Amino acid sequence: MWSNAGVLSTIGNTPLVELTRVLGDCRFRLFAKLEGFNPGGSIKDRPALRIIQKALEAGQIHPNTVIIESSSGNLGIGLAQTCLYLGLRFICVIDPKTTQQNRRLLEAYGAELNMVTESDPATGEFLQARLDRVRRLLNSFDNAFWPNQYANLYNAEAHHRTMEEIVHSLHGELDYLFCSTSTCGTLRGCAEYVRNNSLRIKLFAVDAVGSVIFGSAGAKRLIPGHGSSVRPALYEENLADKCIHVTDEECIAGCRALLSREALLVGGSSGATLMAVKRMKDQIPPGATVAMIFPDRGERYFDTIFSDQWVLEHFGSLGETDDREISNKRVWIPVTASAPSNSVEPQKSGAGHVRNSVSSREGENGVNGKSFLTVENLGPEALNHLVTQALKLDKANGSQSNLLRGKIVGIYFRVSSTRTRTAFTVAAMRLGAQVIQYGPVDLQLATGETPHDTGRVLSQYLDALVVRTNQPLSEMKEIADQGRMSVINAMSDNEHPTQAIADLVTIYEALRRLNDVHILYIGEGNNTAAALALAISQFPGMTLTIVSPPGYGLPDELTRKCSNIARKNGSSIELRDNMRDLPTEVDVVYTTRWLTMGVPKQDLTWRDKFTAFQITPEVMKRVSKGRETIFLHDLPAMRDCEVVDEVLDGPQSIAFRQAYHKQSSAMAILEWCTTSR
Question: Which of 139, 211, 284, 325 counts the highest number of beta carbons within 10 A?
Fold first, then answer.
């Protein structure tokens, strides 16, 4: 087996780039070694190849040898790549913290995954449990090899070359090196090269708060690949001139600052390294040359560092920093959301400024030229963005008042509204927009002008038009066909998409999650239920059970559509027509007014069919997990009809908080539709 051919020959010689923006006016030169350019995507390609290479030379590995290693990410991927190229079987021991992205990469490279499900009883961490599993697996094979990245000296030796590349790229003019730590392989290898070549370079180790490597007390850490719950055997005293401990929050802020300022999408330990340099900034002399090692790329952290939902859930904030030494403005990178993918051309709007004009045809993402007409196929990333952006804008409490400055929003409600009309009016004003209100007969639509012509005219004046009607969605699509003015569906005959966003915001705020949430909706399959079903069907792990009187459920075509979407996304939509077979242990109970928009039903006996579907304390007790189950109602409520006072005003009800979030979700939708991304 030849271990330095093909793709393996491209490992190393990664670029070293100068960073001039992220720290603002810097008195020293700052460089980053971009190890994500290795073929496996990280610095761990180097030790993976080196360890296997040396084991082959020593006769420790043969064609039938099974390679077994503990890794939650990069080293495992590097080994998987090397083993696949060399035709070796590789078993990677992982734990539940291993991201789905890394699992898929490992499997793509042919690795067999062996999952540890319980943490070590003594430490409460998974690392020791993984190492114990590796030892048991080694005993189950006649011919197995453990690279043991935590103790293998070739791990460190591989980084002699890393340090050599940095020194040579800078023609020997290097004063400081900042290096993150986990196995200590990179730090030790770089330190050995400096020592062996009598170089006068100061090494700063960057460790995680909660890591035990440098003698600190162990604590919970969330950023993978940075720090360790066990001191590695490769650790030695005096490897670094100084150790700087960085929090998980600082990692996130650093990563997002690098993306915002330098267009560098890098992983958590890279963000930590930047923040360590920032902390030492005033102690580094003018004219010095500083290098940082950035171990990997950022794609592997989309579910964590670059997920607004994950950050909000674990840290209560959205990766913001007010540190002016890092950037000249707040760092806010909503990478979990993508703008409409339609091709855009700059165009003058009728409101007198340049904006993006996109295709007026409805796109795959449910946004019609930046209009918001339906949640169908919007996608979990865009839905996540709207939810987290709504909470962010609400938390800002007025500091976002310039987002829509200079824009004009029309509010056109052809039917009555308390919450939605007020919410969008206040939302637009809070974001700095001017508002024009239109009554049911104020536009010439009331006298026969076509929706298409109305849209063409209004698009010359307005940036957005918020519409509520009891007509089918097709009318709004005609208004939006002009493709310049954003049209927002504040409710149509067949869908209430802005209500669905408010519902998701409310649920997320209350439960701190959207995954693994079971919603029980009891009532008519109306436009609110339709929008909720379309939204839930796009969230992996969510379940929506709709219980309606016979003949009053979701339309069959919509049911099939939602079921197909749910099947693709790993969610579930269930329909039932009686109250005897209710699910239990649900997270959310939801109901709506029996008379949608107050419109009487054709069936004169309809009330008899709905009576059994009333939400009472007994129903709540049957289906709830306890007080943690919440009750929602989109309001207005017809008390003692669909819900009794004891529930609507009870401790589990957050229906009026749900009404409040009509405003925060309206801000997110307006910002989404009318500002360039």
Answer: 211
Q: Do domains 6-37+159-306 and 497-662 have the same CATH topology?
A: yes
Q: Give the pLDDT score at 400.
A: 65
- The answer to whether 634 and 499 have CB atoms below 8 angstroms apart is yes
**198 contacts: CB under 8 Å, gap ≥ 6:** none
**3-state secondary structure string across 461-475:** CCCEEEEECCCCHHH
The mean-pLDDT minimum among 42-51, 514-523, 596-605 falls in 596-605
Q: Does domain 45-145 have CATH number 3.40.50.920?
A: no
Q: ∠ CA(116), CA(122), CA(123), 5° rounding?
A: 70
Is 215 exposed, middle or buried, given 0-12, 13-18 or 19+ CB atoms closer than 10 A? exposed
Phi, psi of 67 (to 5 degrees): -90, 130
Distance from C-alpha of 668 to C-alpha of 367, rounded to nearest angstrom: 14
Summarised one tens digit per residue, pLDDT across range 166-222 is: 999 999 999 999 999 988 999 999 999 999 999 999 999 999 988 888 887 777 788
**Do 41 and 77 touch, CB atoms closer than 8 A?**
yes
Average pLDDT rounded to a whole number, residues 560-587: 93
**pLDDT above 80 for 363:** no
Domain 345-495+663-674 -> CATH class: alpha beta
